[in-house]
Amino acid sequence: MKSIMKRLKYYGVGFGFGIIFVIFFFQNRGCSWLPSNRVKNTILDRV
Questions:
Q1: What residues make up the domain containing 24?
Q2: pTM
Q3: Based on the structure, what is the number of domains in the chain?
């Protein structure tokens, strides 16, 4: 049981650092790779 808790703690710490990393480095970027956003960008570029 201690081994499982230890693994969960390591996972949680890594997950927390990953979330902070993503928020810090990708804060000003949007998800423009989704199909609906691509259509909107294409329409706005043509107008």
A1: 2-46
A2: 0.53
A3: 1
